[in-house]
């Protein structure tokens, strides 16, 4: 009995009163979260300081008690940052570890901190504060990457490459225009994150365990101290839902999906078969056996890592789908998939933000590739349409010209005028400069959203303004 009490004090210090035997050592370890939730110690301490400040404001703590708590917590934060803090599994999570140390440090006043709150609203508040900071860091990385893309696009507004559909040469495009497609994807990702942040930035604190609290708390004041835009309106909802984390993981999944598509293109483009761009050596590795190899590791890894973030999204969705109101221990499992998605997106964006501005386009190779595959065939059809031929007939005429090109292994621009005139007498000398050259083809697509160099330059300027407008 004495032994059991001892153990109980040791293993269940926070709720020993109700228990007649100690928590099994394995269960203590199995149910603990301190191994991973210590990551948001700073947010936990900030939340506790705001809570104590509010408790003093409404007269539940004296100003002396408030100041002792704030001082104790500030010191604990320093200890954690200097590695002088012992995280204890038997104290289960970040919240109880910090509260326990606070009481050890300042005595009985430490035991008053938890008045009017529960770990349920505490943890929900901590995750939101933590995620809010991470969203801001991710937004800054996205912005750096977007800036790099815009600069590269500006420098390549008239670099010509083949555009593809079905990965078959389709029509010439400018490299700058292709890069601006990447920019659009990533700008939407920023918009989504900014929108998601609004719903993250609401405060559960005050929900207490599930029903609210009997003390005359001032939630608006605590929210203001912590920079929350609003409070969660319903206490049951405030402690239980993790939809904001799911929304973040969905947004993170879309970012990874976009980075993965960009990766796939970079992997193709750096191959000996394409040779469109070079990735500087510092982003690549070689092979231990094949001396000639230079592998595009960064894009390959990012493409691979997209899978884990999609998995993290599914983990959180599955975690929530069966939970009745309000808090359930299941929710402790929200952290690792969220942290993994955050870390993976941050790492991937960091690598891309460094790598993209360092890409070296092989302008001659891209041009050469665009000359193969009859990429200006549509331009020849459009030329004939402008001379009064119906598009379907023009399509047929050009098809025959392409067949001749295939037979003679020549691009349309390499056929002679008499050869072309066999298919239509409407074709004149001006066809070479108006339709069949790569420059004519891209320059002609001169409207908002088109590939013409002039449009690319204008889109870069607008892109910078649109980034600014997002804030
Ligand atoms: N470690 C817990 C979590 O991550 C904190 C909340 C625990 N609440 C409880 N009543 N067991 O969710």
Describe this structure in words.
This protein has a two-stranded antiparallel ribbon. It has a two-stranded parallel sheet with strand order 3-4. The protein is mostly helical and 471 residues long. The protein has 20 helices and six strands. The structure holds arginine. Arginine is lined by residues 33, 37, 93, 119-120, 123, 329, 331-332.
Approximately how much helix is present in the residues?
A: 55-70%
Number of helices: 20
Report the average pLDDT across residues: 95
The structural class is mainly alpha
Shape: elongated
Strand order of the largest sheet: 1-2
Please give the alpha-carbon distance between the first and last residues: 63 Å
Oligomeric nature of the chains: single chain
CA-based gyration radius: 31 Å
Major sheet details: 2 strands, antiparallel
Ligand set? arginine
Question: Any low-confidence stretches, pLDDT <50, length ≥5?
Answer: 1-11
Strand content: under 5%
Helix-strand string:
HHHHHHHEEHEHEHHEHHEHHHHHHH
Number of strands: 6
């Amino acid at each position: 009995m004495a032994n059991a009490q001892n153990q109980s004090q040791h293993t269940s210090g926070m709720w020993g009163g109700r228990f007649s035997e100690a928590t099994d050592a394995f269960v203590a370890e199995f149910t603990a979260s301190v191994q991973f939730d210590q990551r948001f110690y700073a947010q936990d301490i900030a939340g506790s300081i705001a809570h104590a400040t509010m408790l003093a404001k409404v007269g539940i703590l004296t100003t002396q008690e408030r100041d002792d708590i704030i001082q104790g917590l500030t010191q604990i934060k320093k200890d954690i940052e200097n590695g002088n803090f012992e995280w204890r599994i038997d104290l289960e999570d970040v919240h109880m570890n910090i509260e326990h140390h606070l009481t050890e440090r300042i005595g009985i006043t430490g035991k008053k901190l938890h008045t009017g709150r529960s770990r349920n609203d505490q943890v929900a508040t901590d995750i939101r504060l933590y995620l809010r900071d991470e969203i801001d860091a991710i937004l800054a990385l996205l912005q750096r990457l977007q800036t790099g893309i815009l600069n590269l696009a500006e420098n390549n507004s008239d670099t010509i490459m083949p555009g593809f559909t079905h990965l078959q040469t389709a029509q010439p495009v400018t490299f700058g225009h292709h890069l601006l497609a990447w920019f659009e994807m990533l700008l939407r990702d920023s918009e989504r994150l900014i929108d998601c942040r609004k719903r993250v930035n609401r405060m559960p604190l005050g929900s207490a365990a599930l029903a609210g609290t009997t003390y005359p708390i001032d939630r608006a004041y605590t929210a203001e101290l912590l920079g929350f835009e609003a409070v969660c309106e319903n206490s049951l909802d405030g402690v239980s839902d993790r939809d904001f984390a799911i929304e973040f993981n969905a947004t993170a999944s879309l970012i990874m999906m976009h980075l993965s598509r960009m990766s796939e293109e970079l992997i193709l483009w750096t191959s000996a078969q394409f040779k469109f761009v070079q990735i500087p050596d510092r982003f690549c590795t070689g092979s231990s056996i094949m001396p000639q190899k230079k592998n595009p590791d960064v894009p390959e890894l990012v493409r691979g890592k997209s899978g884990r973030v999609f998995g993290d999204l599914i983990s959180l969705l599955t975690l929530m789908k069966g939970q009745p109101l309000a808090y359930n221990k299941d929710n402790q499992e929200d952290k690792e998939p969220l942290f993994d998605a955050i870390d993976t997106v941050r790492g991937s964006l960091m690598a891309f933000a460094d790598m993209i501005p360092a890409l070296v386009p092989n302008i001659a190779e891209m041009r050469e590739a665009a000359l193969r595959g009859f990429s200006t065939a549509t331009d020849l059809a459009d030329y004939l349409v402008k001379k009064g031929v119906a598009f379907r007939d023009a399509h047929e005429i050009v098809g025959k010209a392409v067949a001749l090109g295939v037979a003679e292994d020549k691009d349309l621009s390499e056929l002679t005028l008499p050869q072309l005139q066999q298919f239509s007498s409407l074709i004149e000398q001006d066809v070479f400069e108006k339709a069949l050259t790569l420059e004519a083809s891209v320059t002609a697509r001169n409207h908002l959203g088109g590939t013409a160099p002039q449009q690319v330059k204008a889109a870069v300027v607008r892109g910078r303004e649109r980034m600014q407008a997002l804030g």
